[in-house]
Structures are given as C-alpha cells and as structure tokens.
C-alpha cells in the first residue's frame, strides 16, 4: 500500500513561485529543506513524519534506494530543483537614488498635560 502525506497539513506556499511546499528537516543534521507538497515517483528523497508531527527527509542512496514501507516513507522532490520563480539574491538591494526620509517623531504628552498644547 503506497503511503501518502496528509493533503493539507503543513503546506505553505513558496515565496518565489507560489507552489505548495512542505518544510522538512534533513538530509543533513540541522538543515531545513523545502519539498514539493505532493509525492513524486521520480523523487530522490524519502520523506516521513516523525513522532512530533514534523517531516524528516533522507537521501535515497545505493544502500536504501527505495522508501521503506515499515517507516511509512514516500518519495519526495526537493523544491529547489523544481522552483520556477525568479532566483534573486536577497542580500543585495537595489541602489537608491536618494537617501530615505526620516519619519517625524511624535511623542505622547507627558502625564497631566493636555494633548495638542505646549507645556509652557
């Protein structure tokens, strides 16, 4: 029996292409990986839910080339390989033609003063 994830739980949208994705831990320790929301037979990752309700992925390799049915795994594709959004560098911003203007500082009146009146 093929294993499929919950159809809507844990799904968010990609900020670049608006495709439905799920965030998973792995395959490296401490790494977060976006995967496509629906399973794919062409996937190179094995995804499963852990005991806390999160997703964990591992790389399919020669030792374990298929998802393990005993661990309730399914094949998944990393969203990086299928994202159709524009690849931009978020750390580089566009040059500004002039410096930004400061917003005026409006301070609330001191305790006991009437709003809109000067404290003279």
Automatic annotation (TrEMBL):
It comes from the Bacteria. Residues 25-50, 82-120 are annotated as: Disordered. Residues 82-92 have a biased composition (Polar residues). This is Uncharacterized protein. It comes from Streptomyces hintoniae.
